Records
---
Amino acid sequence: MKIRFKVSGRHSVFFSLVAVAAILSGCAKGGPSGLTPPASGSGTGTMATSVSDNSSATGKNLRIVASFYPMYIMAINVARGVPGVSVETLAPPTTGCLHDYSVTTADMKKLEGASIFVANGAGMETFLEKVASRYPSVRTVRLSDGLDLIDEKGSPNPHVWVGISGAIAQVENLGRFLAASDPVHAEAYRANAAAYVSRLSALRDRMAAGLAPYKGREIITFHEAFPYFAREFGLKIAAVIEREPGSEPSAREVASTIETVRSVGMAALFAEPQYSPSAAQTVARETGAKIYSLDPAVTGPDSPDAYLAIMEANLATLKEALAARPSSN
Ligand SMILES: [Zn+2]
């Protein structure tokens, strides 16, 4: 079975909001809204947010396109309230990680007239060359450039944002890049980046404190999204159930995961809301381990605070799961 499905119900709520917003504003889905006035507050779910409220003051519009959801959430934070700036996502917000993602013509069209393309880099976007050759005037920033990347068999693990320190470094990279690209608003980008970074730092402190009792504990995750997170909080990833997202693990891989769970005496497995938990269910059935959901923040609501909320939920989940049974080692 190769079909992915959403386990979390919140996405359907999100899409009905999109539909309502599209009807109310009379704009067709897929058409970049340019500089439509922002909805009051945040999180109406259009995923093409105008973060400006007085764009007419400058006369010059800056369109930022983010490659996928986590980059989009960073961009709407750093560009928040900056006159004339809009942010949208290239890949639809339900895409999840871009590992096996083929960019569509409609996606690429969003780069027409865009100024800046915000990519994760580290191999996550396989279409960067295509973007560069088709839209040479679009400036691409790879937010993982210059960071301490975890190597996996000769290539970097791209899930940098899943560690809070990685997210902080990426937001700082984005703040610097936008300040340099749009110098008139440099101060605003810097202030936004600093404000978001301070909230992320507070989150990191809370998580470090909450997870301190579990340092050295082993966890089993669903795909290869959590090494940065684990490094940050002193957890060990004993096994990964599905290395290639979207492809079911082989019987031998499942058997070896079952072996690991038994030998370590593990009580918890961590699936992800974006993928079918069927392999995890098999392992759980065979071992008696319980399945929890750990979210790598690759899908979610259209809200600047989404990443913070997802990580708070991850913290609560981990505390519950790791407290469930003391580790045998
Ligand atoms: Zn991934």
Note: The pocket of zinc ion is lined by residues 97, 99, 159, 223, 225, 245 (CB under 6 Å).
---
Amino acid sequence: MNIQNTVIKYQDHSIHMENRRTWAIRILALGGAVGSFVIGVPALLAALSASIQGRQKHAWRTAGIANDFKLGQITPTEVATDRGDWSKTLDRITVFVWRQADQRFVVFSRSCTDLSCPITFDHGSECFFCPCHGGIFAKNGVPLAGPPKRPLYRYANRIHDGNLEIDLHSLHPAH
Ligand code: FES
């Protein structure tokens, strides 16, 4: 054992440590790249999807067969809607359809104009009721009592191929 052997051993050890460090850095870099891909791609798709949807002017969805709605009555019905993100998952919203005349409809959002609680319609009194703070709306959506100051929101609607369609983009997404 002399100094030269000791130096060679030390150099071997240093080279070994250097290799381990290099591999550790590569593995960390690879992990970071994979992580960025896994997180970044869905986020990018969501952003693209949102921006494409934002550019769509209308989003017409079927609320039901027009003639199935009884004349003069308010009927709750469900409308399929996508969540608006990259997943394309379908969701459903409830709206209230008022068939005022043969070809004339009013479609109300279910959200109370106070703090967006879901309202219900009472056929006896012909009023909408909000369970949260006692808001009451007339059949035409005008607020009658409680905190709401604005009338119920309405969706634009049309008859297309015998179906009543509503434009989901005609309301703010929160309603
Ligand atoms: S949320 Fe409807 S009355 Fe407050």
Note: The chain has one helix and eleven strands.
